[in-house]
């Protein structure tokens, strides 16, 4: 059969997802752009994690189809999916006593056959994942003795060691201090630009999303409110409408990407403490 670009990567077609009787997502059409960094953004409870879990094959849609490289995800084994799609869940848990290196080595599981021996390629992938996340020196430490940010980097390293073409990351910057957040965003952007990875990341920081992602998908109430390049999605009108918050969009003075500044507090709270001047500069309330 002739394969086309449409057969490569992940795509949801007419997907509905429910927890029991509550329908969370309906009529979702989302073709994940191959070789792009897509940021999934939206208010709390808008369905970001739910959609990510469905794209990872962890939730079976009530209706519609999710395709991986043209094949129905529901027809593929967990191991087959894991060779192609790496997943960083939100708040993952690990058994007590597991060291960072043990965890990272788990990332190689999808590449091992039943009696397959640990290979040099496995070692190299783990070493590289530890180095990329800057946690080589923590390799022997049990996970439960680490700070939240160190633990989060260990989980990211495990996902990297999996060496998949597609990575689905649910709030990867959770627990990370600002410097490590920026480092991680650079790392993701580099993996996409230099290694052709496809990344979908749930992000709460709209400005980081607009700065580093090449595409944004903004959700509201389980539906796509807007999708496209950050400059297309990050408009004052869309952000205000989706988040119910008046905002001003200025140009990020460093990256040149759209940057969202909340323009006012709720009217009940009185006038804003800070107002945005015409040139995008902050002026204090007098
Ligand atoms: N396991 C579950 N069982 C029942 N309802 C759930 C479950 N997980 C999520 N939900 C509900 O589904 C809706 C979407 O949740 P989801 O976690 O996908 O949102 P989100 O956009 O990722 O939110 P947040 O930004 O707060 O992480 C919410 O109303 C939530 O209460």
Uncertain spans, ≥5 residues at pLDDT below 50? 1-5, 273-286
Number of DSSP helical runs: 9
Oligomer, anyone?
single chain
Mean pLDDT: 88
- Look at the structure and name the CATH superfamily of the largest domain: P-loop containing nucleotide triphosphate hydrolases
Strand percent estimate: 25-35%
CATH topology tier name of the largest domain: Rossmann fold
Percent helix range = 25-40%
CA distance, first residue to last residue:
69 Å
Structural class, by secondary structure, is: alpha/beta
Q: Please write the string of helix (H) and strand (E) elements.
A: EEEHEEHEHHHEHEHEEHHEEEE
Main sheet overview: 6 strands, mixed
Query: Mind telling me the CATH class of the largest domain?
Result: Alpha Beta
State the shape.
globular
What compounds are bound to the protein? adenosine-5'-triphosphate
List the domain count as a whole number.
Answer: 2
Count the strands?
14
* Rounded radius of gyration (Å): 20 Å
CATH architecture of the largest domain: 3-Layer(aba) Sandwich
**Strand arrangement in the largest pleated sheet:** 6-7-8-3-9-10
